Amino acid sequence: MSEINTNQAYVAAADNQRNYTLPLAAMTTLFFLWGFITVMNDLLIPRLKAVFDLTYTEAMLIQFCFFGAYFIMSLPAGYLVKRFGYKKGVVSGLIIASTGCLLFYPAVAVHEYWLFLGALFVLASGVTILQVSANPYVAALGPAKTAPSRLNLAQALNSLGTTVGPIVGKFLLFGGSAALAVEAATADTVKVPYLFLAAALLTIAVVFAVLKLPEIKEHSEEHDCQAKGHSLTEAPHLVFGVLAIFCYVGGEVAIGSFFVNFLGEADIAGLAEHEAANYLAYYWGGAMVGRFIGSAALQKVAAHKALLFNACMTITLLLVTINTSGLVAMYAVIAIGLFNSIMFPTIFTLAIQSLSSLTSRGSGWLCLAIVGGALVPLLQGYAADTIGLQTSFYIPMVCYIFIAWYAMSLPKLLGKWQAKLGN
């Protein structure tokens, strides 16, 4: 999830003429890689489910361990970055993430599912540190006035990673044909992609260690006293925004997690894992396209109205997914990616609106809510085991219903907070 908001960063170096092309290229590559890493979980789930003969609930422990790391490590990562600086935070995150990838090798050798989960937790812990460190670095790699442009470029590369990941991952995990997919139905196929990722992350860590990057001065709001005397719990648009982020990340991750298995159902498409992986790329590719469309639309449409429209469209598509079969259900679940696109940054922006000097702390609350990606898929996994895979999609639908309510209620919620500030 690369959209995590961090404090605005500014260049404090005296030499404004420094060429930051190389470090910026390295950083955008990093955004691509962690998008690739995150979406690989969607392919890892059906592979390990088959290898270890797991229930859906057990298979969803993959997302539980991965996104649970965001909740556990976000605050320690913040302290690490504050103590040692953003550059060391980036390097540390890369090394830890690489270590997590390397741990897949002994996990395969021992052939124990819990070792795979441990490796994923270590990998996600490194990615969490990168998330906390990376956006300020991108903002610092050039003039402050062009920082938003650089951040958008980096996030676009993240979306490209989630789009390319399923295409590459299907060959590495399932083989390029049905015959190879059957032969590759072992945990051994997991080693190659994660050893590749480990090497890539270590290489970038070395690059960042030797590069001279700018000193970063955090944007301080301590002199802004507009919100003085108020607490975050008094801001209803933030409190419910935290729940909306929880629901969004949970719903998005849950749908992606069950995508391959859903298309493998006989009454849906009956696709083999390596074939379904092709359509997973369309699901995430739709999110990338939707970001470009949304960035233009949001210049003319109020953010909460755009959020409401997208949430309602997603609810409609989920109803179609649950109550139809064949190609109709398949294309309905694929189309959800397009409408997921703008939700995270839109909810985030709306939730921190008018927080003034409380903005940084409010952002921290929203980052912790990413734990929804750990809990909602686990809940849907239990539902899939008890009431059926297709019916289990009611779980993420409830999440999007809450998001729609939040979008409709936002003006009233924000008005209550602004009234308190006016008192």
Strand order of the largest sheet: 1-2
What is the number of helical segments per DSSP (H or I, 4+ residues)? 17
What is the CATH homology-level superfamily of the largest domain? MFS general substrate transporter like domains
CATH class division of the largest domain: Mainly Alpha
Taken together, the total number of domains comes to 2
Q: What class, by secondary structure content?
A: mainly alpha
Query: What is the percent of helical residues?
Result: over 70%
How many E strands?
A: 2
What is the mean pLDDT? Answer: 83
What is the CA–CA distance across the termini? 37 Å
- Strand-and-helix sequence, N→C? EHHHHHHHHHEHHHHHHHH
CATH topology description of the largest domain: Growth Hormone, Chain: A
Which consecutive residue ranges, at least 5 long each, have pLDDT under 50?
2-17, 177-184, 218-225
Radius of gyration: 21 Å
Report on the structure:
By secondary structure, the chain is an all-alpha fold. It folds into two domains: 1-216, Growth Hormone, Chain: A, CATH 1.20.1250.20; 224-418, Growth Hormone, Chain: A. It has 17 helices and two strands. It has helices at 21-51, 56-59, 61-84, 86-102, 104-110, 113-140, 147-174, 178-183, 191-210, 236-263, 273-297, 303-323, 326-340, 343-351, 359-368, 372-387, 394-422; strands at residues 9-11, 216-218. It has a two-stranded antiparallel ribbon. Helix 7 runs antiparallel to helix 11 (273-297), helix 10 runs antiparallel to helix 14 and helix 12 (303-323) packs antiparallel against helix 13. The longest helix has 31 residues, at 21-51. The protein is globular, with a radius of gyration of 21 Å.
